[in-house]
Write a sequence for this structure.
């Protein structure tokens, strides 16, 4: 390793980092915005400008790092470069376009109100386990064309992958769960190739790329990315929003009094909590960034949570300003891999905040019983118990679960 490379003191699995990632990122931005982390075996990129450069230069920084570094089944689209990335991503666009939020609105309303109907008479619940997890899972599985009554088996391994310790029995269980999911997707795709329905998986199973049906293994890889991308991030964001509103009654009251603020507030929550904190890349050729020489094949960790707190771009970056404008955050990534599910994600998080404030406006988070993921990548919560004044269910249509 060349001696001249700047070393960065940012071990993303160390207790110091996990206790306060934002603090660690702030120090890194001030002292060493691009540096080599010996503990992580990768370059760490921390300022907004440098993050922007890496994510925009897909010819230099490959996304295949996700496949090369990951022990689970390959996550296609996310872990691919052009030209194949472009061809596969094109198949997803029509299913996740801006119009999708409107198309999904009645289903989303039904799932969300149905889940809340079960909770509101009780006056207490675990809002992550009983609402934050199932709601996005139901919406995404419905869109993809996978069985909503099995939502837990599709969602849980995706959550556990983020919080289980590498090498632990819990991680092994999560990986076995991912293999089950891959098997289910394969079987469904094979059936839909013969007998298509009106869903994303049927579209993928019957799509032709360069005149050929795409291999069923690739349909599995693409669908795994959509399900994984869809079920974990929105849940994580929602849990952080509830904790913030619990600690900041003025913000809670402002959103109750003026729900038209929820879309802008949603963007600010995305910026501040950045559910996927660090993205992964790998140098395709020798290159240079911020005066550092990066060698071909080296991994580059792109810290979008750090970019989203860069004071050069976001004044008072550590504060949550519900009507912050402009707010060009990087929480959905940037460049060709920018989140294709962002329209669905925005619709889901806005609806979840609105319904929670309508139906449990005085919720109180029991923070000392809440459990954080505790890993470096996703900023999420495993459990979040709350109490609130009970109310009557509205009698929404029965849920499929
Ligand atoms: C708050 C919610 C969400 C956040 C913060 C989020 C974040 C991200 C980020 C940062 C990326 C870029 C990764 C990279 O460049 O390495 C990404 C990609 C992706 N996301 Fe999301 N996501 C969210 C919700 C969703 C939803 C609901 C879906 C599906 C319905 C989804 C599907 C995907 C897919 C398929 C990709 C890969 C796109 C590509 O590589 O071209 N995401 N997401």
């Amino acid at each position: 390793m060349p001696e001249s490379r700047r070393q960065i003191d940012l071990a993303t699995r160390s207790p110091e980092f996990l206790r306060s990632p934002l603090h660690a990122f702030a120090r890194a931005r001030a002292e060493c915005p691009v540096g080599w982390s010996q503990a992580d075996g990768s370059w760490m990129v921390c300022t907004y400008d440098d993050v922007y450069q890496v994510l925009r230069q897909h010819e230099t920084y490959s996304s295949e790092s996700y496949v090369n570094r990951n022990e689970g089944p390959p996550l296609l689209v996310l872990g691919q470069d052009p030209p194949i990335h472009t061809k596969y991503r094109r198949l997803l666009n029509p299913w996740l376009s801006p119009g999708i939020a409107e198309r999904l609105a009645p289903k989303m309303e039904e799932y969300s109100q149905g889940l809340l109907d079960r909770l509101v008479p009780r006056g207490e619940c675990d809002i992550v386990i009983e609402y934050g997890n199932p709601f996005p899972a139901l919406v995404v599985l419905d869109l993809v064309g996978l069985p909503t009554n099995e939502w837990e088996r599709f969602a849980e391994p995706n959550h556990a992958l983020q919080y289980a310790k590498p090498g632990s029995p819990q991680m092994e269980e999560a990986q076995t769960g991912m293999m089950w999911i891959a098997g289910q997707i394969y079987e469904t795709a094979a059936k839909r190739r013969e007998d298509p329905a009106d869903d994303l998986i049927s579209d993928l199973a019957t799509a032709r790329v360069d005149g050929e049906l795409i291999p069923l293994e690739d349909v599995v890889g693409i669908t795994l990315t959509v399900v994984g991308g869809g079920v974990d991030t929105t849940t994580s964001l929602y849990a952080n929003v509830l904790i913030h509103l619990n600690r900041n009654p003025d913000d809670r009251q402002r959103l109750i009094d003026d729900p038209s603020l929820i879309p802008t507030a949603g963007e600010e929550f995305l910026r501040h909590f950045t559910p996927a904190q660090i993205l992964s890349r790998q140098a395709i050729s020798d290159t240079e960034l911020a005066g550092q020489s990066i060698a071909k094949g080296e991994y580059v960790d792109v810290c979008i949570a750090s970019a989203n707190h860069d004071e050069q771009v976001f004044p008072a970056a550590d504060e949550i300003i519900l009507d912050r404008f402009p707010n060009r955050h990087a929480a959905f990534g940037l460049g060709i891999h920018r989140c294709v599910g962002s329209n669905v994600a925005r619709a889901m998080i806005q609806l979840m905040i609105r319904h929670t404030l309508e139906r449990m406006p005085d919720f109180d988070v029991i923070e000392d019983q809440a459990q954080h993921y505790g890993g470096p990548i996703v900023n999420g919560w495993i459990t979040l118990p709350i109490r609130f004044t009970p109310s009557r269910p509205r009698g929404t249509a029965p849920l499929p679960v």
